Amino acid sequence: MKETIKDCLLEIQDLILAIKDTVKKYELENEFIGSIAVGFIDPDSATVEDNEPMVNMSLLSMVDVEDEDELDDLLSYVVEIYRAEVEEEKKKDTSSIDYWINLSQRDGDVN
Predict the structure, then answer these.
(1) Euclidean distance between CA atoms 70 and 77, whole angstroms
(2) Which of 3, 91, 76, 2 has its CA nearest to residue 35?
(3) Alpha-carbon separation of residue 31 from 1, 7, 52 (angstroms)
(4) Considering 30, 39, 64, 73, which has the largest number of Cβ atoms within 10 A of its Cβ?
């Protein structure tokens, strides 16, 4: 692992611990739910196994939920937000025909 990645992960770990300490400071542990996953991909480690691309990752995570159902709800929310962000990005993609169609439908003129 590169030294810069290691240093960055250690700093991120400190931030995650600071989040947990903040929740504890306000005595909100019973109300708090959270999931954090961060990491770095090592493109130099890319290989193919059983026709599937594989790559090494340096990961750090924290999950703070009461049970699997709560985790499922939280992850479902994350998926919804991701999909909404992808749709917003598509609207800005000038290489997409949808961009030009939407632009022309705003006021009937692309200019």
Answers:
(1) 11
(2) 76
(3) 36, 32, 40
(4) 64
pLDDT band at 68 (very low <50, low <70, confident <90, very high): very high
pLDDT in tens, 46-60: 899 899 989 999 999
- What's this model's pTM, rounded to 2 decimal places? 0.69
Please indicate, yes or no, whether residues 51 and 15 belong to a single structural domain of this protein. yes
Q: Count of domains in the chain?
A: 2
Is there a single domain that holds both residue 45 and residue 88? Answer: no
57 in the same domain as 75: no
Amino acid at 81: I
**Measured distance CA(42)–CA(44) in Å, rounded:** 5
| C-alpha dihedral, 72 to 78 to 80 to 84, nearest 10° | -170
CA separation for the pair 11, 2 (Å, rounded): 14
Rounded alpha-carbon distances, angstroms, from residue 57 to 7, 48, 73, 78, 108: 15, 15, 26, 21, 48
Contact 35, 64 (CB under 8 A): yes
